Structure formats: C-alpha cells, structure tokens
Predict the structure.
Amino acid sequence: MFFNISIATLLALALMLLFVPFGRKMAIKLNLMDKPNSTRKFHDSEIPVIGGISIFFCFIIAVIPFYSFFSSSMDQLIMVLSISSILLFTGVIDDKSNISPLLKLFVQFVCAILFLQSGLFESVYIFGASQSFILWIQKIVIAFLVVGLINAFNFIDGIDGLAAGLFFIVFLWLGLFSFLSQQYIVLFSSLSIAGTLVGFLYYNLGKVNKIFLGDGGTLFLSSFFIGSFFLLSNDLTYPIQDSFFLLGFLSLIMLPVLDAFVVSKNRIVNGSSPFKADRTHLHHRLLQLGLLSRKVLILIISSIIGITIITLLISVYCSFLFSFLFMVLLYLFLYFMISTAEKMKSHQRILLRIENRITAF
Amino acid sequence: MKTLNKRKLAIIGTVGLPANYGGFETLADHLVKGVSDTYDISVYCSAKRYPKSSRKKTYNRARLFYIPLNANGFQSIFYDTFSIIHALFYADLLLILGVSGAWFLPFVRIFTKKKIIISIDGIEWKRSKWNLLAKWYLWWAEKLAVQYAHIDISDNESIQDYTAMRYGSLSQVIEYGADHTLRVTPQNSDYDVYPFLKKEYAFKVCRIEPENNIDVILESFARTSKMPLVCVGNWENSTYGIELKSQYQHHEQIILLDPIYNQRELDLIRGNASMYIHGHSAGGTNPSLVEAMYLGLPIIAYKVSYNITTTEGKAQYFSSSEELMNVLLTMTRDKRKALGKSMKRIADRRYTWNVIIKKYKFLFDQVFLDHKKSLFSNASEKMEFNLLREVHATHLMHSRTFFES
C-alpha cells in the first residue's frame, strides 16, 4: 500500500520534471504566456503559464497505473478531479485571455455547490443539524467560504514558489491526516500532488526553464484541495470541529485568507473592485521593504510553519477556541511588525532628507 | 516665615553619580549641583557600576538609589522601568534620560498626575549597531516617549525637525555643556609619554564605528601628510577597528591610541591639538564636538545637518575623502586661528553648563504649567482654496512642500 503510494509520488515528480520542458515549448507556440506588461509584475521576460496543466496531466498519468488498488473509492477521486478540472479549464482560459472576474466567481461558486452536492459532504454536519433547511443554509455559507478560499490562494501567487510552496505544505498536512485516519485514497492523491508540486518548484524556483502556476494552477490546486478535504472529512471518525487537524489546516490557510481580506477591504474602501491588480499584498509589501523575493518566500513560509507549530502546541493544553484566537493574534502581530517596519523605513527616508539639508545660516 | 516645600525631581536613566561614564552622567552631575536649591533631587544609579564599598547615599544633597541592573543595553528597559515605578511614589517630576523605559509612560500619564520630561538622545533606532529587534523596540519607544511625555528634549535642531515632521509636536532643544573640560599645559613628563605634543597635530576621539567615518579620515590624513593625526578610540572592539588599526598604525603621520578615561589626560592631548576632526554622521549634537569647540579648536566636521547646526555653519566640512583632503591642504595657520576663535565664541555662548542648566530649570518650571506641545497645524491647510488663490498663497496648502525646502 505505502509502497504503491511512494511509487506514485515519485512517478508524479519524475513526470513533471520530464514534461515541463516539453510543455513550455507547447505553451510558447500556443502563446500561453505571462507577459511583463504592467508595473505590477516583476519578471522581465515572458514566462509560460503551464503549471496548472502540467500538474493536472502528470498527476493523472501517475495515478492511472494504480487505479486497481483504489477502485472502490476511485470514483470519488474522479468526481473531485472532474470538478477541479472545470476550474483548471476556466483558469487557463483566463490566463490566455482575461475573463471577467464575475464570471470566474460564478464558475467557482458553481463548482463549490457541485462539491457540496456530489455526495461527499452529506455526513459532515458542522452544527449537528440534520434538518434540510439548515443544511441548505450551511451549504450556501460553506460555498461562499470555499469561493473565498480559492480566491485567497489565487492572490498569494505573486512571487516564485509562494503559492506552490504553501500548497505543498497544505497537501502534506492533508496527507498526514489521511494517513492517521487510514483514508488511503486521500493520502495517495495528496502525496502525488505533492510530488508534482516538487517538480513544479524545481522549475519555478530555478533560473532555467522557468514556469508559472497561473490562474489555472491555483484554481485547480485549491479546488482539488478542498475536494480532497471534503473527501477526508467524510471519513474522519471524530467530529471535525474540535480536531487538531482542523486547527492546523486553519493555521496554514489563515495568512492567504487574512491577506485577501485586508487587501479586498482596502480596495473596496478606495472605491475599486476587490480584484483590481495592485501591489498591496503582503508579499508585495515585503518586497517594497527591500527584501529579495527569495527572502520574502522564506520569511512567509517559515512564519506560517512557525505559527502553525506554536498553535498546535498550545492546543494540546488549551481549548480549540483559545488556540484559534491565539493563532489569529500571532498573524495580526506579524502584520503589525510589517507595518512597523514600513513606518520605520519612511521615517528613515525623512531623516536622511533632514540630515542632508545644508541650510544656510 | 513660611518655607516652601521644594518640588521633588527624580533623575532616571543614567549610570549614576559621581559621573564617570558619559554625557548623561555629566549632565546629571551639573543638574544636581545647579538645581538642588529649588528641587529635592533623587538620582538612580546602577549598582553594577558602583561597588558596595564605595557606594554613597547622597551626592551634593541629592539622594542616590541603586538598582541592581545595567543602565545600558537590554537591561536598560528594566532599569528605567523600575526607576520610574519607584520614583512615582514620591517625585513630582521625572526627568528620564533615554527611551528604554518609554513603554511604561502611557500608564504614568493615565494613572498618575506626575510630570514627565524625557530626553530622546538622538535617533537611536537608526544606529547600525542594533539588531532588528532592538531597532523595532527603540523606534516604538521613541514614539511613545514623544507622545506621552509632557516635554521631550532632543539635543539638536535637526532632531526637532524630525519629531515635528513625524509626530507633529515640538521638541525642546537643549545641548550639552563643555566647560567641564580642562585647559591642560603639558608638563615634561607628558612630553615623554606623548612626544607629538611638542608639535602641531590633529586630534579625534570617538567610538570606532563606521558611522564615524574613521576610515575616510585616516585615509585622508595618510594621503596628505600635512599634519599628524592622533586618534583615540576603542580599536580592538570590532573588526572594523582591528582592520583599521592594522592598516594604519605603522604610518608615521598617524598615531592610534587606546581609550583614555582620565579627564586630565584626555584634555591634555585634546586641548593642545591644532585641529579637531569630527566624523560623526549620526544622532544629534555630539558632546565631544562641543567640548572641542569650547577648547577653541578649529573644527573640520562631517557634512551632516547635526554638525552644521552645532557649529552654526561656521566650521569646515567634508563629505568625502577628497573634500577632507582639500580642506586639509588649504588650511593655513591663520585660518585655523580664526576658526578656533569662532568656535570658541559659539561654545561660550551656547555650550556652557550655566546656560544648559538654565534651560533645564526653565523647562522644569514650564512643565507644571500644562502647556500643550502640539505644533500649531499649518492653518493654511484648513483655509479655503479660493481664498488662498486670491492672495497667491496656494503653495501653502500642503505642509509637505512647506517643510521640504
């Protein structure tokens, strides 16, 4: 069993490493490129946006040989994959020729509903109610949350390795818990995706043959994650609201969520659409402080890992609610630190101007 | 006859008295001597620097309290905090030197009616010697200090500009006195130890840090060789210092000396120099600069607004090695004499303890009168645009352009 899973993971990784150079050439021919046409973007050459497609194909090809081992739960995986592929498709079209944000939102919402209606969700009651009306309300609310989460992950795809790195950790977390609850289909799919992500990062973080994840990639990965999450929650033998798993998951996604929240709010307050492209995300702010993009990547990822570990340690001794609130506080403290650093930088600029003022006496 | 009860003043944040260590301590010393007729003074000292055997209970009518912590470095946060808390029980006015304990000031303002005067001592958080965490704390502490003290003092007008820009409030500027320095005539024994005293030489004393531009100065003197340079500092304390020492110590025109703590010895070498080179680029008015001015030395200073305000624009300045060499080569004996005299005039007017203590006394009396210290906000910002346009004064609309001349 685990042997098969390891082989699948390594196969996924190998397929990515082999496929991407080829996929790049295809993308160049089909003009599926990210052009550095705005002041917001940092790269100065055109980069193929085939992360999502590569991951999708390599994942499927890596999984097929093992179809027979998981045939009982395979149809559920196929269900998740199909719904995610709708979003992959939408994202790739958006990468090539921009689609209206409203249309994207609509498709995301539809997919969220599809997830919830697909039969994966039935046995998970967040508030323990079984009346159909309350269940419907729950589903609508959760659909909105899902859409929010998908967009939050989309927003953090701003520097090399950030989105993919976070997805990597998140899928590992999912894999860990599927291992603990002996839900092997999710372990299998999570680790295989993690394998493709390693292959992706090899090219994304490198200087040769660079590729981007693109909208397609982030949409696919976040929806696939959410689908797998539902799949796993279905089978967990303990209620998810008080679990270690949920807390870790929340801690891992809190930064993209907070960032999306803060940035959207600021954009709305300024009168623009929350999807307007600008440089106010957290990673942009860190870059503007003068840090290199590799340092920003390390800083963000290690902060997320660090805060998650601290939160999980605290949850051993304290209640879920307290740990959750403490975790949010830690992230807010991170924001506070960054805005303090920004203020210090602007004070420093003022000081420099004052020090160099040679006024006449 | 009615005797007025004297107000009680607590001086917090210095290493302690008798003064052995630095600018703040010398200030505390003169405050105690100059103000104790109108105030009952208590001074907080670091028990770590005053061994139990030689500890005094009073000094010039001021009470001394000892706290078992270091007054500088990380422990200063706790040192200042405990001093403040202790002082709250009896003092009417707290004079706090340095911002380490500033985090506690909001509580003092909210829960007590004690008056706080704080001296923010240059822009500490910018200094390269601090790590990132220390910089964060100091920046935040400075903000609290300016916002929660009744009066904040800086030692330079440029810092006053800075606090005005950033906090919209008016700092008071009080510099340092220099008349504690001695005019020392060299004895024969001195010539034996320091043979360079017989001739002309330039002098510099400072901490060996890149901010003080020592490499620029040493390079310029090595290349012009017009006059030897005697430079006193803690060379062994950093790689910067060690490297410079090894590079220049064998140069015949450059004499590098280790730190001198004896006031007489320092003033002996300093007072008899023919020029004083001041390379500081950071943090306000420097006590060693005003002391050199008081000693009547011609000053060549680094071209930064702090030094220019201290010397009132009348010294010679440099911002690079080339400029310094230029100044050195064109400096004649007559120029030096005139420069020294002009510096002395400024120092006699501004940098005597008499003047400084008078300023402090004035602030002490002012603080009990409850003045608001916010700057009068640029009124034209609130005026109607049309009215401004009529009088051709629309450029006053934005204080940003007004400040940034």
